[in-house]
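Researcher: Here's a chain I'd like modeled. Treat it as a single chain, no partners, no ligands.
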Amino acid sequence: MSLRAFFSTVVGGLVLLTLVSATLLAVLTTSLEGMASTLSESVEGVRQAEELEVDLLVHSRLLTSPPGVPMMADPTRGRTPLQIEADLRRQLLDMHAIASTQDERQTTAEVQQQVFAYLAAQHAPLGPSESPAQHDAAAMASLDSALRSLEHLIQINVDQAQEARQNAAHASEMGDLLGLILGLLLLATLVLVVFWLRRFALRPVTALRSAMAGFGRGGRHLRAPEEGPSEIRDMARTFNEMADSLGHQQEQQLAFLAGVAHDLRNPLSALKLSTALTNRGDVTPERMQRTLSLVRRQVARLDRMVGDLLDATRIEAGKLELQLEVRDTRELARSVVELYQSSESGHTLELVVPDTAVLVRADPARLEQVLTNLVSNALKYSPAGSRVEVSVGGDAEHVVVAVADQGIGMSPEELEGLFIPFQRAGNAKQRAPGVGLGLSVSRRIIEAHGGRIEVESQPGRGSVFRVHLARVTAGPPRAPSPSDEEEPAGKDSRAVH
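Model: Modeled as a single isolated chain. Structure tokens:
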């Protein structure tokens, strides 16, 4: 699991928990508000019913005064019976307005009907055969029914108030329980986040830091454990790959130093032996000439090895400078071929050039260095008596200089590491000495000219190296040097003995 996914999950869970909490709080608040409203309406209903009941009793007492006693007003509020009747009608309307349940509305309607019947009975005249006592009894019966209905209405509101209070208490308990549960969930989430970070994030980071610190102190064998979140695993994998790469580079450097020491020892041993022979008094002139020739070859070999090392160092440091000139590729190829035709390699070296000039803008010394390296390799890795061909061709935009041999060739696997510094194929190590820098330096020189080197090879059938450069259609004339000789165009084939 990645840190991004973990924190996204945690944040998403907290957001969801917050939304649930807010929703439950809103529902609970709304429910409590409704319960409070119901309780308030119930209390108001009880108050109005009791007030109506008191006004009915006061009205009945005022209208049923003993005979001979004048009708008096309400002693508490100074109201007359007519004013009390107006208050009764207003109270009945208010009771209808706050009635919330069907039972309450039905009971309120009964109270209204009975109160109106009571008032009507009080104001009705005596019948022909009706006595005052009978008249008062009919009014009192309507009053008793109204009072019983009011008591029932009061009980309904009391029951509603008790139910609302119980619901409020239950809602309060539920709110406390939900708050406790949400608090525990938040605490559990915090504990899980801290545990996960310590177990799966902080520990791998600590291990990675320890591995990096130990590696920096010289523990080249140390590697970071690839565990924990994906980001930390990627960091550990990158560090391990870097450590492996540095270790591989260190091994290559040690192998390179060992190879350089070995390759330098051979010519130095030959030089040491040659100088020892010259100290003998019986050395003939012929033997001295052969010794000097050997010394020249070994010195040239040492010079070439040191030159490759210096060029590789300049290239890696970005200090390779090119002195560009417009030159005829045929002349450069011819000078290289003539150099090796004067040696005793036992190969047939051929030069194939077109009739017209093939101009390029290049550093002539560096380009000759590349061609010299390619021709030298072709001669070293080809059997005696085989043919090595150097050709110049191309089209209107490009120049191609090819060096083809009939040597040992290379497999596709060997071609992949052909231009890597300090690496040499197995067959090449056995056939000729070297440090594995020539082709690497040659490719970097050609790339610095804006060109490229391609190679085709088959084991046992030879190799073809092609140097591609941009062609120059015209350029300033160059004065030929005294050593330049005009040569017929076409194919120049000479055997080297």
